[in-house]
Amino acid sequence: MNRPSKRVRDDSSQAPSNKIARTGSTSNISSRPGLTAPSAPRSTTTASGEIPHPFRREDFEVAIICALPLEYDAVSLLFDEFWDGNGATSRRAMGNDKTYTTGRIGQHIVVLLLLPGMGKVHAASAAATLRSSYIGLRLALLVGICGGVPYVGIEEVILGDVIISSDVVQYDFGRQYPDRFVRKDTIRDNLSKPSKDIRNLLAIFQSDHGREQLQQRTTAILKQLQAKAIQKKRRTDYSYPGVAEDKLFEASYRHKHHVSPTCVCRNCHDRADRVCDEALDSFCNDLSCDERQLILRERLASKRQVRENEDDQQNPMIHVGSIASGDKVMKSGEDRDALATEKNVIAFEMEGAGVWEEIPCIVVKGVCDYADSHKNKKWQAFAAATAASTSKAILERFSQASRIPKPTRHWTVPFGRNESFIGREDILARLLARTPPSANKDNCQRTAIEGLGGIGKTQIAIEAAFRIRDEYPDCYIFWVLATDVTNFENAYRNIGRCFGIAGIDDDKADVKILVKAALSRDDLGRSWLLIIDSADDADLFFGPANLSNYLPFSKTGSILFTTRNHQIAVKLDIPRRGILKLTEMTRAEAIQLLELNLEAVQIRDVESTSDLLEFLADLPLAIKQASAFMAQTGMTTTKYLEYCQSNNKTMVELLSKDFEDQGRYEGERNPVATTWLISFEHISRTPIASQYLKWMSFLAEKEIPRSLLPRAADTNELQADEAIGVLKAYAFITQRGDQDLFDVHRLVHLVMRSWLEENGEQQECASEVAQHVAKTFPVPRHENRNVWIMYLPHAQALLSRDTCPKEPNLPEYVGLSFLILGKYGEAEQMYRQAFELRTKTLGQEHSDTLASMNNLSWVLRHLGRYNEAEQMQRQTLNLNVKVHGPEHPSTLTSMNILAGILMSLGGYDEAEQMHRQTFNLRMRILGQEHPDTLRSMNNLALTLRHSERYDEAEQMHRQTLNLRVKILGEEHPDTLSSMNNLALTLRHLERYDEAKQMHQQTLNLSVKILGKDHPNTLGSMDNLALILTWLGRYDVAEPICRQVVELRTKVLGRDHPDTLSSAHNLAWLLEMLGRDDEAEQRQQP
Question: What span, in angstroms and rounded, lies between the C-alpha atoms of 71 and 75?
Answer without folding.
Answer: 6
